[in-house]
Amino acid sequence: MKTPPASSAPVTIPLVVLTVHRNGTITVTRDGTVLPPPAHTTWRRSSLPEIIERASERRTVPVWVEVHETDGTSFTDLFPAQPQPQHHEVEGSKPRHAAPSPTLAEICADGFIPGEDIAIAPVIGHIDAGKDGTARAFLDPAEHPGVSEVVLVGRVSGTLAVRRLP
């Protein structure tokens, strides 16, 4: 009997839970284990790209992310793993330096209806507006080379927001 080929997909996807506190700090766990912030710092909303990078082992494994807000609302998203480039060394050639790890770009806009579905154009996914009508999307510019602007489109309100990627 043949043994099936090994799969590169994990059997389970790690669960990353972010609990937002009233003072703006965030507690982060990965599969129930606290993910500490860098020394002498605290996790904050602005830390989300770094949190995803660390929790997903620099995007080598996919992670489910749950965010629990102070008002009792929560949302989830899946951050897929990014394919790692294969570097082949030719004998006698100089070793290559590792490419910088990807960073996520945050795009914010307001004027949306609370909870509304918002398209990200070029449409690569959807997000929901928060209770206050704001929208926040995180994009990895490396996944979308050549894209310098995105459009957030409120599916109910028709609100449009054009933002340049940082």
**Sheet with most strands:** 6 strands, mixed
Give the percentage of residues in beta strands.
25-35%
Count of helical segments?
Answer: 1
Q: What's the end-to-end separation, in Å? A: 54 Å
- Counted up, domains total 2
Count every beta strand, where a strand is a DSSP E run of 2 or more residues: 12
Shape: globular
User: Regarding quaternary structure, how should these chains be classified?
Assistant: single chain
Mean pLDDT: 79
Helix % is under 10%
The parts where pLDDT drops under 50 for at least 5 residues are none
Can you write the helix and strand succession as a string?
Answer: EEEEHEEEEEEEE
Structural class: mainly beta
User: Nearest-angstrom radius of gyration?
Assistant: 19 Å
Summarize the structure.
The protein folds into two domains: 12-82, no CATH class; 102-166.
Descriptive notes:
By secondary structure, this protein is mainly β. The protein folds into two domains: 12-82, no CATH class; 102-166. 5% of the residues lie in helices and 35% in strands. The protein has one helix at 48-55; strands at residues 15-20, 25-30, 33-34, 43-44, 63-68, 74-79, 105-109, 117-121, 125-128, 135-139, 149-154, 160-164. Strands 1, 2, 3, 4, 5 and 6 form a six-stranded mixed beta sheet that branches. Strand 1 (15-20) and strand 2 form a beta hairpin. The model has no long low-confidence stretch (mean pLDDT 79). It comes from Bifidobacterium psychraerophilum. This is Cytochrome c oxidase subunit 2.
Task: Quickly list its features.
166 residues; mainly beta; 2 domains; six-stranded mixed beta sheet; four-stranded antiparallel beta sheet; 1 helix; 5% helix; globular
